[in-house]
C-alpha cells in the first residue's frame, strides 16, 4: 500500500493525467524475448492501477490477463475499463499488497511492473530496497521458464531532470531515498535469478500528459497526477505556490522550465526487460 498517495482518492482523476507510456515497446520486448506472440501469453500486470497498460494489451487478445493492485479504487476503475474487452481473454483482478504476489510458480509468460517500485519502501535507508528485491524474486517465481519481466521506473537522475522537482529541493532529496538506481535494479534482478536483456530511457514524459504545463504546480488537481507532491508538507506547497506565482507574474516561469527541464538528456523514464532463462 502506497503511503505517498491515497490511490483510492487518486483513482478518481488518474486517467486525466496518465497514459500507458511505451506500451508498444513493452509488447515488442515481451514478444522478442519470449518468442511468443501476445495472443499466446498469460500476462500479469503488477500494480496495474486503473488498467491503462492492461487495456492496451487486451486488444491483442492474450490468453489471460491478470491485474493486481493494492488499491480497491484503482482496481474498480480497471474492471470498468476492461469489462467489454475480447471474450477470448480470461480476465482476473486481485487486491494484493506487494511484495507478495500470491500466484503459483511458473504460471505467467510475461509480467509487467509500471511505475510502482518507488511506492514500495516506506522507511528506506536510501541504500537498500528489500521490498523491491522481494518483489523481483516473487516475479521470478511466478514466471514460466523463458518468461519475461518488464519494469518501467524512474531513476534518481531522471527524477532530478523533471523541471518541477527543483521547486521543492528538500522533497527531491526525500525522493532519492525511494528510487532505486539503474545499478541497484540490475543487481536485484540478477539476485532474483532474472537476466537483464534490455534497458532504455524515454526522452519524453509520455506517461504524464500535462508534464509541460508550467502553471500545473499551482493547481491541486495537476499535483494529484504526480506522486512527487504527495510527500511535500503543507508549508512546502504554500512556499512553492508563492514562488511559482511570483515567476508567473514576473514572466520568468517559462525560462525556469527551460532551464530545469533535462529529461531530453537523462530521460523521463527507464524501461527494463529481464528474462527467466530456461
Ligand atoms: C503510479 S501508479 C501506476 C499504475 C499503473 N501501473 C500505470 O502505470 O498506469 C502506482 C500504482 O501502484 C499501486 N501500489 C502502490 N503500492 C503498492 C503495493 N505495495 N502493492 C501493490 N500495489 C501498489 C498503487 O495502488 C497504484 O495503482
Describe the structure.
The protein has 278 residues and is of the alpha/beta class. The chain has one domain: 3-Layer(aba) Sandwich (Rossmann fold). Helices cover 39% and strands 18% of the residues. It has helices spanning 7-10, 14-17, 23-34, 52-58, 72-82, 130-142, 156-160, 169-176, 182-192, 220-224, 234-250, 253-260, 263-266, and strands spanning 42-46, 64-69, 90-95, 108-114, 143-153, 195-202, 269-275. Helix 4 (52-58) links the parallel strand 1 (42-46) and strand 2 (64-69). Helix 6 crosses helix 9. The longest helix has 17 residues, at 234-250. S-adenosylmethionine (SAM) binds at residues 1-2, 7, 18, 47-49, 52-53, 69-71, 74, 97-98, 114-116, 119-120. The site of S-adenosylmethionine (SAM) has 20 residues, from helix 4.
Overall mean confidence score, pLDDT: 94
Order of helices and strands: HHHEHEHEEHEHHHEHHHHE
Unreliably modeled segments: none
Bound molecules: S-adenosylmethionine
Largest sheet: 7 strands, mixed
How does CATH name the architecture?
Answer: 3-Layer(aba) Sandwich
How much of the sequence is in beta strands? 15-25%
Across the major sheet, the strand order is 3-2-1-4-5-7-6
Rounded to the nearest angstrom, the distance between the terminal CA atoms is 33 Å
Task: Please identify the top-level CATH class.
Answer: Alpha Beta
Taken together, the total number of domains comes to 1
Structural class: alpha/beta
Give the tally of β-strands. 7
Round the Cα radius of gyration to an integer and report it.
19 Å
Please bin the fraction of helical residues. 25-40%
How many H/I helical runs?
A: 13
CATH fourth-tier homologous superfamily: Vaccinia Virus protein VP39
Shape assignment: globular
Q: Classify the fold: give the CATH topology.
A: Rossmann fold
Amino acid at each position: 500500500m502506497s503511503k505517498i498517495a491515497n490511490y483510492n482518492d487518486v483513482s478518481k482523476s488518474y486517467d486525466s493525467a496518465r497514459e500507458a507510456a511505451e506500451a508498444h515497446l513493452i509488447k515488442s520486448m515481451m514478444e522478442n524475448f519470449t518468442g511468443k506472440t501476445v495472443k499466446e501469453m498469460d500476462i500479469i500486470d503488477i500494480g496495474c492501477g486503473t488498467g491503462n497498460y492492461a487495456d492496451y494489451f487486451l486488444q491483442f487478445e492474450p490468453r489471460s490477463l491478470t491485474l493486481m493492485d493494492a488499491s480497491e479504487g484503482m482496481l474498480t476503475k480497471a474492471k470498468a475499463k476492461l469489462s467489454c474487452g475480447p471474450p477470448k481473454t480470461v480476465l482476473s483482478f486481485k487486491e494484493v499488497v506487494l511484495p507478495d504476489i500470491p500466484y503459483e510458480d511458473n504460471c505467467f509468460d510475461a509480467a509487467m511492473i509500471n511505475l510502482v517500485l518507488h511506492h514500495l519502501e516506506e522507511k528506506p535507508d536510501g541504500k537498500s530496497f528489500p521490498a523491491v528485491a522481494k518483489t523481483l524474486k516473487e516475479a521470478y517465481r511466478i514466471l514460466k521458464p523463458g518468461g519475461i519481466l518488464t519494469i518501467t521506473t524512474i531513476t534518481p537522475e531522471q527524477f532530478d531532470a523533471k523541471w518541477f522537482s527543483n521547486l521543492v529541493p528538500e522533497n527531491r532529496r526525500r525522493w532519492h531515498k525511494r528510487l532505486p538506481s539503474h545499478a541497484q535494479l540490475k543487481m536485484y534482478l540478477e539476485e532474483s535469478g532474472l537476466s537483464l536483456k534490455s534497458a532504455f530511457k524515454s526522452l519524453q514524459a509520455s506517461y504524464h500528459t500535462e508534464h509541460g504545463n508550467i502553471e500545473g504546480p499551482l493547481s491541486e488537481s495537476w499535483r494529484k497526477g504526480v506522486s512527487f507532491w504527495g510527500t511535500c508538507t503543507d508549508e512546502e506547497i504554500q512556499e512553492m505556490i508563492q514562488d511559482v506565482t511570483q515567476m508567473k507574474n514576473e514572466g520568468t516561469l517559462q525560462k525556469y522550465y527551460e532551464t530545469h527541464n533535462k529529461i531530453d538528456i537523462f530521460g523521463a523514464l527507464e524501461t527494463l526487460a529481464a528474462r527467466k532463462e530456461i
